[in-house]
């Protein structure tokens, strides 16, 4: 499947279209920093923005959207419910708070940020209600392993549309990708650029071969694996450069070579072992 434009979309399991590529704003400061990053991304042509309650920058994201001049209906906006707010009533309240901060009438995608066992089932019921009420166009999860998904699906009436996880050549999540594909759950990558750990010989080699940066090689690998990708940057030139991955295609051999880098190595927390 050819993904050739920044505005190209994947169709989620409920028919909603989500851009393959977007801007992540994890660890981007509230205020001018996040506002400038979002405006820069939208001016470049990005149409997907990913934030979360715990990032503390939903208000800045909302302001930037309003000031950008881009019509609301053209932008796909994701936020997430934080662990401390999981549970039925508390999720509904957290959603209203996020919507107020973002200044939105509706949300495109709402995610459970991390799996929290039985509590996540109550959270999911609340999200199903928000979905049925038309407050959010799609609901999903983040950082869920296969067993977390199986546990949720046992009681769910709505199958998650998206699972956003750490994903890159050193952590290629083969089993999870297969499970999500089987259940029509779109996989999405956070930290696709391995938090800057790009000094791998094969990335240098492929960057020279294709006339691209190591980051662009990794982002293209994500897209050709049909994984939605949301690299974070606050630098306008880097935001633009990250999006310049639609004018080339990695060969099957080069795709395979990158996949063989897998070490099941995480730069972020393991969803089976975190304490927040």
TrEMBL record:
PROSITE patterns: ALDOKETO_REDUCTASE_1, ALDOKETO_REDUCTASE_2, ALDOKETO_REDUCTASE_3. InterPro entries: AKR (IPR020471), AKR5G (IPR044500), Aldo/ket_reductase_CS (IPR018170), NAD(P)_OxRdtase_dom_sf (IPR036812), NADP_OxRdtase_dom (IPR023210). Belongs to the aldo/keto reductase family. Residues 22-263 form the NADP-dependent oxidoreductase domain. Keywords: NADP, Oxidoreductase. Substrate binds at residue 113. The record marks 80 as: Lowers pKa of active site Tyr. It comes from Tumebacillus permanentifrigoris. The keyword Ribonucleoprotein does not apply. Pfam families: Aldo_ket_red (PF00248). This is Diketogulonate reductase-like aldo/keto reductase. It comes from the Bacteria. The active site is at residue 55. GO terms for molecular function: oxidoreductase activity, acting on the CH-OH group of donors, NAD or NADP as acceptor.
């Amino acid at each position: 499947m050819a993904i050739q434009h920044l505005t190209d979309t994947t169709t989620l399991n409920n028919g909603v279209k989500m851009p393959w590529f977007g801007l992540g704003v994890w660890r981007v400061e509230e205020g001018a920093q996040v506002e400038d990053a979002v405006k820069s991304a939208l001016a470049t042509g990005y149409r997907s923005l990913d934030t979360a309650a715990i990032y503390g920058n939903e208000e800045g994201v909302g302001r930037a959207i309003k000031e950008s001049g881009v019509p609301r209906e053209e932008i796909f906006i994701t936020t997430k419910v934080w662990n401390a707010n999981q549970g039925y009533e508390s999720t509904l309240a957290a959603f209203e708070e996020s919507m107020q901060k973002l200044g939105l009438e509706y949300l495109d995608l709402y995610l459970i940020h991390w799996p929290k066992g039985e509590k996540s089932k109550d959270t999911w019921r609340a999200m199903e209600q928000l979905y049925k009420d038309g407050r959010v166009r799609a609901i999903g999860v983040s950082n869920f392993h296969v067993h977390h998904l199986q546990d949720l699906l046992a009681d769910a009436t709505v199958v998650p549309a998206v699972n956003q996880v750490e994903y890159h050549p050193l952590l290629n999540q083969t089993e999870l990708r297969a499970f999500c594909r089987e259940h029509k759950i779109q996989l999405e990558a956070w930290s696709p650029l391995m938090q800057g750990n790009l000094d791998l010989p094969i990335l240098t080699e492929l960057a020279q071969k294709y006339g691209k940066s190591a980051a662009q090689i990794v982002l293209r690998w994500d897209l050709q694996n049909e994984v939605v990708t949301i690299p974070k940057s606050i630098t306008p030139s880097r935001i633009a450069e990250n999006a310049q991955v639609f004018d080339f295609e990695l060969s099957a051999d080069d795709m395979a070579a990158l996949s063989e880098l897998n070490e099941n190595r995480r730069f972020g927390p393991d969803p089976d072992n975190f304490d927040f």
